Write the structure tokens for this entry.
Amino acid sequence: MGEADKTLDTLWQDQRRFDPSATFRAQANWTDPGVYERAEADPEGYWAEQARHLTWFEPFQTVLEWDPPFAKWFPGGRINAAYNAVDRHREGWRKNKVALIWEGEPGDSRVFTYDQLGDAVDRAAHMLARLGVRRGDRVTLYLPMIPELPIAMLACAKLGAMHSVVFAGFSANALRDRILDAGSTLLITADGGWRKGQVVPLKRNADEAIVGTTVEKVLVVRRVGDAARADWHPGRDLDWAEEMEKSPRAPYPAEPMDAEDPLFLLYTSGTTGKPKGIVHSTGGYLVGANTTMRSVFDIKEEDVFFCSADIGWVTGHTYVVYGPLSVGATSLMYEGAPDYPDKDRFWQIIETYGVTVFYTAPTLIRSFMKWGEAYPRRHDLSSLRLLGTAGEPINPEAWLWLHEHVGGGRCPILDTWWQTETGSAMISPLPAITPTKPGSATRPLPGIAADVVDEEGNSVPAGRGGYLVIKRPWPSMLRGVWGDPERFRQTYFSKFPGWYLTGDGARRDEDGYLWVLGRMDDVINVAGHRIGTAEVESALVSHPAVAEAAVIGRSDEVKGQAITAFVTVREGVTPDDALAQALRNHVAHVIGPIARPAEVIFAADLPKTRSAKIMRRLLRDIAEGRVLGDTTTLADPAVVEQLRQQYAHRE
Ligand code: PRX
């Protein structure tokens, strides 16, 4: 039994259970526990019912065509994501309702009603069309958290082009890889973005990234002015505001897309060095986003929904943009860091705008805990009625802290498990129906056939762990890996043919609740961000001093996991602190600051099997100070003992 298992067993002994309160139930959207059984008895009927909450130009006749691993949801139905997110609300009484509240890091703010947002999206769609963007094209977006980001996404959706949003914390190099893979001819970026009072030089990165790519035009939003100087390339670089001015103030007709037409591409890390472009559909994706807003987040007309994720990740796509807007809610987006100018920034935002539903990441909660409860106590948080987390397992201490110090003991907590690939939340409580247990994402949502199975594919009994799989297709599932159908099949559908392999391990308890343990593959989850060990390793070996590198994720109190790199240097190179620092910076430069290793350990050799496979499991044991696992398959067992001693005495 591993360490993680022991911790869980201790947890289960003093398991606490929170039942939905009568007050919450009395006002909730979904209160009938029978929904789970109904969806199970007729999943297609359930999803068809959910899909009718969207506006279809042409109704679908078929719900699902399943030819594993290829699913088609609502094929033949015609729909447009931007129309559903904006225009349909503009046409009715929500016209003057606030769609988007934006707060900039320096304290500036902008508010868009549905009508104003729709107007901006229309003008942006005219602009993109004028720049030659057509249905099916890919447009890469490398923008900070400013309103132009959702506006550009929705403008792409309106004319049927796919957006590929690249997180603004990624490096020029990472941006280039994603542009090359997507084959975009247009890049939308900003002069820079604000982060902790500093400027992130996005335009400069973009200039470096596009050399040798298909990009012909760069549209630049001015955000930081003179704070980030970059060259201007007349003819290639265009000013967003000037180009928007040229657009007519007239509606841009929403392209009627087939439900199965792709809506966007979003890159995520896997087991190889090359990030995969996850392809999402228009209709099914929107059904997932829209349904979970109503079921999980219990959204009502008067809610102010604040998801603190960056739109550069899937959580921001689904729960800052498409989910809240598709239900006509008010979505709040914040540009900057949670501790700028002070550690109460989120609480200040919640108080100022009367946020009712707050969705954040466990890693942030652990930071808030470290900073202390005085920060939330400075603010009136009584508007909050529901809280959620995603991105990594939440430890019960963080769950309980959130419940008490942010939720005032009255707000249900939603631990939502999902992935870039799943498009929307998959395992989560329904807040008025499902009793919660701190640390468990509880049970699969209605219509989702998640299970935990052993090596042979048998469902594990209570108390046991195994592979987390999803046994039936669901509307917002990925439709493929961009340009690589074989990788799609191989990664997700080859271990258990016909079932989707999540890559996560989980355990089931006596009540059938699921406890997600984390990745079982070579993916690290640092502060809720997915990073492939292979990506970091290839960044390290691209440095002239490095001969070989092995990267692992070791547990970290705040970030969940931190990156430890074991490195052997080339002949004649001195492995000292300065080199360790240089290598950490090198990785940050090649991939982005989120991939910077917490530590670089120099080794004379790396532990390998006789077939020369690096044994990362042993490296993890070393980094977490555990008793070493089985070393009998090692080519040279002395290597690992030497490393262990070296690691133990590293300070
Ligand atoms: O390991 C799981 C972890 O995050 C991974 C997916 O990351 P990403 O594709 O970036 O999507 C994030 C969407 C929330 C999963 O494979 N993960 C996500 N949510 C949870 C989680 N682990 C435990 N509990 C969760 N609630």
About this structure: The mean pLDDT is 95. The longest helix spans residues 114-130.
